[in-house]
Design goal:
It contains 9 helices and no strands. Helix 4 (about 95-120) packs across helix 9 and helix 8 runs antiparallel to helix 9 (about 220-245). The chain starts with 17 loop residues before the first helix and ends with a helix. It has one domain (about 15-245). The relative contact order is 0.15. It has helices at about 20-45, 55-80, 85-90, 95-120, 130-140, 145-170, 175-190, 195-215, 220-245. By secondary structure, the chain is an all-alpha fold. It is about 75% helix and about 0% strand.
């Protein structure tokens, strides 16, 4: 594994500073929320979302499939405005085969460790909100869209935001660890659907993904890891709903 990214190919223009980085992220989230609400309103004939459950799988699918392309688009525009190729700024480059294999093995170990911690503390392997989202999406005929949103689209969007744009704006030579911790904490705090142990696991996962982002120089690699993690969670959810209830 190549531990140090190739800095020689980076543009001369520095990344956006911390205030500008946060400002662009806020703008991306606001525009993406507006887009998701508008699309839902159009689909419902102008009606605002009226969730009958806390975690409606259909709304999750619409929200992710609509908002995430907008988020990534805004951040890509911000990168180009700074004089960077969008893919380079966000870290979307091809990782090495050995890095992918090593990352996949780490994901397997992480999943086993997290599942054991849930089992040891008497918690269900599949949180109730995942069951609710799956069942409502299935009942609403949007199960395939929800699976696509959670397993593929959401990892691309979250990694573009956190290990891509935010990482590029926060990380400074010699202060990589501080930035990785701050990004992992911010990412964990957004996952309010989990209990304290779940959020602690998300934070730990954020640290691991941050390390891989720094070590490989590739957000693509963390997207692959994120996809595998969400896929494992979805498989457990399918097993729980379809064969154990």
């Amino acid at each position: 594994m190549s531990l140090i990214p190739d800095q020689n190919r980076l543009p001369q223009t520095p990344p956006w500073g911390i205030p500008a980085t946060i400002g662009w992220l806020v703008l991306a989230f606001l525009l993406s929320a507006l887009a998701a609400t508008s699309v839902y309103g159009i689909m419902q004939g102008g009606a605002l979302p009226s969730k009958t459950t806390t975690f409606d799988g259909t709304l999750i699918a619409i929200g992710a499939l609509t908002s995430i392309p907008v988020q990534v688009g805004v951040l890509a525009f911000a990168a180009q405005l700074r004089g960077w190729p969008a893919a380079l700024y966000l870290g979307f480059n091809l990782p090495k085969r050995g890095e992918i294999v090593f990352a996949a093995l780490c994901v397997l170990a992480i999943d086993l460790l997290f599942d054991f911690s849930l089992y040891a503390t008497g918690r269900d392997l599949v949180p109730s909100f995942q069951l609710e989202a799956y069942q409502t999406a299935k009942d609403g005929g949007s199960l395939a869209a929800m699976i696509l949103a959670i397993v593929v689209v959401a990892p691309i969007g979250e990694e573009a935001v956190f290990r891509g744009f935010l990482y590029r704006g926060l990380v400074r030579p010699g202060h990589e660890i501080l930035a990785i911790v701050a990004i992992a904490l911010a990412w964990a705090l957004l996952h309010v659907q989990y209990d304290w142990l779940g959020m602690l696991q998300i934070f730990a996962l954020g640290l691991i993904l941050g390390w891989f982002r720094w070590a490989s120089g590739s957000t693509t690699l963390t997207v692959i890891m994120h996809v595998l993690i969400n896929l494992e969670a979805m498989i457990e959810t399918v097993i729980k709903v379809e064969w154990m209830t």
